[in-house]
Specification:
The complex is a heterodimer of chains A (about 120) and B (about 650). Chain A contains five helices and five strands, in the order E-H-E-H-E-H-E-H-E-H. Chain A has about 120 residues and is an alpha/beta fold. Chain A has a five-stranded parallel β-sheet, sandwiched between helices. In chain A, helix 3 links the parallel strand 3 and strand 4. In chain A, helix 2 packs parallel to helix 3. Chain A is globular and about 30 Å long. By secondary structure, chain B is an alpha+beta fold. Among the domains of chain B are: about 190 residues, Beta-Lactamase (2-Layer Sandwich), CATH 3.30.450; about 90 residues, PAS domain (Beta-Lactamase, 2-Layer Sandwich); about 150 residues, Histidine kinase-like ATPase, C-terminal domain (Heat Shock Protein 90). Chain B is built from 13 helices and 16 strands. Chain B starts with a helix and ends in a 6-residue tail after the last strand. The chains are: A alpha/beta (about 120), B alpha+beta (about 650). At the A-B interface, helix 1 of A face helix 8 of B.
Chain lengths: ~120, ~650
């Protein structure tokens, strides 16, 4: 079973995503702030990290910078839109995907599958 | 250097130069005159001597000729023979008689001849006053050979016997009938010749005259050096010139090496040069006196000239000086000049004129000063007035400047406020979009879970609730996205991602999106692409715009057809969607693309649009530098279009 960690400061959103992904057969762990997410990623191994960008203590981007060397996939999950150019830059930096909120369940599952199987 | 000194110097130089020049020419002329006199004198002496010499030679020649004429007859008579006796040679005559005749002959006894002798046809000296000579054969002697023909005088050339110069006069002896039987020859005594020539009366202390033969040997003994070897050649410049055949005068160095002045005559009859000369020293003695006199006169003249010069310069200088004084005084400002040194010449006149001018000037000066005072006062008040005005103007200017500075400051503040505002808007936008969308996420997610049955089986009514909730949530999401897009466009936060895109591809994608839904609804959806090539535009956004038109067409059409067009027009590509829907009322058409306008709001049952609104579409197309528009007939259908420039104008 593939392991996913979702770093998100809004509880309701986090729980909803966890439910959706678990129903799709993924193991999901949650972190409710950047620091917690950082600690968890450094201690455990995951196949994929889904990161919210706008968090109070640390942005998803900063978190990614700290752990990018880890052998796992990274994707952003954010309400903020992204331009094509920016998306290309992110891909070059090592981000596998950028999913906008709100998302369609089918879409989210398909994209996660594409990243980790 | 002062002018006075200059003046004196000029006069002195002038006079000195003149003195020197005149002295020199005086001396030069004098010496030439003396020389000419000497030359003339010597010339007459030389001419005299030459003629004396010539005469002497002629006399001796005559004597010898007479002797030759008489010798035969006299010898016959003295030997007691007849005068007519035929004689064939000197041997026919009595030797003793001949000897006696020769010795006793007045010629033989004379001091003029050194020797007198007779030669036979064989060249043998038959008889001579010099006994040693008798019997000697001299058949090769030039004078003998010549004398066999005619009287011959041999001059010059060293004698072969004694080594001394000799002149020989040789005359042929003719017997009765004219036959030559021998030669009578006389050698002229050199000392006699010397006597004739070298008398130096009229030649001064160092003068002398001598003869030189054509071989450049002295014929006569030079008086100044009597022991000079007589076989020595002379070879002086003067003699050489004479022997070249010239007669004249010359300064040259003589045989002693002394500088002399000589007058010479060439005597062509005997190829002989006669030279009369005097030492240069003696010549110039007379000149010395001349020179001393000249020098004295010259100095005297110079001295006088200097005195005159000084006096002249003073007389020029004095009036100039006086004039200078006057000008000086005037220059210092003293226009009441009075102490003038009077001179009664042109300078004095000038000085007087100057003084008069100065007095007049003083008068005018006075008048001027008065008027000046008035003028000045007036000017001062004028200046003050102007200064006041200027100061006021400057004050105004300063106020204006300060006001402007304030305005600029205000503007700067306003600008920074605006910038802050902008930044705040930016942050607000991001915040709002994030905050608004955050709760939507779990809402949507849970609704999906419910709808999919992951939360348990739902009743029909429950499912309907869920569906209603889902639709509303989607609409809310759409509205939020619309609002944010509009807000971003308004604040200029949009950045177009310009790329090379194919309009036909975009049209195809949009067609694919709606064709299924259209089929379900029973509407014919078709695509008509022109050959549009490439344009430069934002792919995503252009697609959204076309999609907006297409979905609107779908929403507002119940039956009929929807067609998507792309067409190339002049410089632009036109995208359009034509439907056979409900159309738009005329009065609503121009308001379609305004903010938040929803046509057909009164018709509650009609579905509302989601995603980009027409306002956003318009804004995006305008950013591209393109145009949007609509053509519609209420009840019949509509065509929504936008045109984009090929080159991607706008942002």
């Amino acid at each position: 079973m593939k392991k996913v960690i979702y770093v998100e400061d809004d509880r309701d959103t986090a729980e909803a995503v966890k439910l959706v992904l678990e129903l799709a057969g993924y193991g999901v762990e949650l972190a409710f702030c950047g620091r917690e997410g950082l600690a968890k990623i450094q201690q455990k191994t995951y196949d994929l990290a889904l990161l919210d960008i706008m968090m109070p203590d640390m942005s998803g981007w900063d978190l990614f910078q700290k752990v990018r060397t880890k052998k796992m996939k990274f994707a952003f999950l954010s309400a903020l839109p992204v331009s094509d150019e920016r998306f290309k830059e992110l891909k070059k930096a090592g981000i596998s995907d950028y999913i906008t909120k709100p998302f369609e369940r089918k879409d989210l599952i398909a994209r996660v599958k594409k990243m980790v199987g | 250097m002062m002018f006075r000194s200059k003046l004196i110097l000029i006069f002195v130089l002038f006079s000195v130069i003149i003195s020197i020049v005149s002295s020199y020419s005086f001396i030069s002329i004098g010496s030439h005159a003396i020389e000419d006199r000497v030359r003339a004198q010597f010339d007459s002496v030389a001419t005299l001597k030459a003629s004396q010499f010539l005469m002497f030679m002629e006399t001796e020649k005559d004597d010898v000729v007479r002797m030759s004429d008489d010798i035969v007859v006299h010898s016959l008579i003295h030997s007691g023979k007849s005068e007519d006796t035929a004689i064939t040679s000197l041997d026919d005559l009595d030797v003793v008689v001949l000897r006696r005749l020769v010795h006793d002959n007045i010629i033989g006894e004379s001091e003029d001849f050194e020797e007198l002798f007779l030669m036979g046809l064989d060249g043998k000296v038959v008889v001579s006053t010099d006994a040693r000579h008798e019997g000697v054969v001299e058949a090769d002697q030039g004078y003998f050979l010549s004398a066999l023909n005619a009287t011959y005088v041999q001059g010059g050339g060293p004698g072969n016997r004694t080594g001394e110069e000799s002149f020989v006069i040789a005359v042929p002896i003719k017997a009765t009938g004219g036959r030559v039987i021998g030669v009578v020859a006389g050698k002229i005594r050199r000392t006699r010749m010397t006597e004739i020539v070298s008398d130096w009366t009229g030649l001064g202390e160092t003068g002398e005259t001598f003869l030189v033969d054509k071989y450049n040997y002295f014929i006569t003994t030079p008086a100044r050096k009597p022991d000079y070897a007589l076989n020595t050649q002379v070879y002086t410049a003067g003699v050489n010139d004479c022997l070249a055949g010239h007669s004249g005068s010359k300064h040259f160095d003589d045989y002693r090496g002394v500088a002399v002045f000589g007058v010479y005559k060439w005597i062509p009859e005997y190829d002989v040069c006669l030279m009369s000369k005097i030492d240069d020293a003696e010549l110039f003695v007379s000149m010395r006196g001349l020179m001393i006199t000249t020098v004295f006169i010259g100095c005297g003249t110079a001295f006088i000239a200097i005195l005159v010069g000084i006096w002249l310069s003073f007389s020029i200088y004095k009036p100039l000086n006086a004039l200078g004084d006057i000008a000086n005084d005037i220059g210092k400002g003293d226009l009441d000049v009075h102490n003038i040194k009077r001179t009664y010449d042109e300078f004095g006149d000038l000085g007087r004129t100057l003084v008069v001018m100065a007095h007049d000037l003083r008068k005018y000066q006075g008048r001027l000063l008065n008027s000046e005072k008035h003028q000045k006062a007036h000017l001062v008040s004028e200046v003050n007035r102007k200064t006041q005005e200027l100061r006021r103007a400057i004050g105004n200017l300063e106020n204006t400047r300060l006001a402007m500075l304030n305005i600029m400051e205000d503007m700067r503040q306003a600008n920074s406020h605006l910038q802050e505002l902008d930044k705040a808007k930016d942050e607000f936008l991001n915040l709002v979009s994030h905050e608004l969308k955050t709760p939507l996420t779990p809402i949507k997610a849970h609704l999906e879970l419910l709808a999919d049955g992951d939360m348990g089986k739902l009743s029909k009514l429950q499912m309907e609730s869920v569906h209603t909730l889902s639709r509303s949530t989607d609409r809310l999401n759409g509205i939020i996205m619309n609002l944010l897009e509009i807000a971003r466009i308004n604040t200029g936060k949009i950045q177009l991602n310009i790329d090379r895109i194919r309009p036909d591809d975009i049209a195809k994608q949009v067609y694919d999106d709606i064709s299924l839904a259209g089929k379900e609804k029973g509407i014919k959806v078709s695509l008509q692409c022109g050959k549009t090539g490439f344009i430069r535009a934002d792919r995503g956004r252009v697609r959204e715009c076309l999609s907006n038109f297409a979905t609107n067409a779908l929403k507002f059409t119940e039956k009929g057809s929807i067609t998507i067009f792309t067409r190339m027009e002049k410089g632009v590509v036109r995208f359009s969607v034509t439907d056979t829907g409900i159309g738009i009322k005329q009065e609503d058409q121009h308001r379609l693309f305004e903010k938040f306008f929803q046509a057909g709001r009164q018709d509650v049952g009609k579905p509302k649009g989601v995603g980009l609104g027409l306002y956003s579409v318009r804004k995006i197309i305008e950013l591209h530098g393109g145009e949007v528009g609509v053509e519609s007939e209420f009840g019949k259908g509509s065509t929504f279009w936008f045109a984009l420039p090929r080159r991607g104008g706008g942002v």
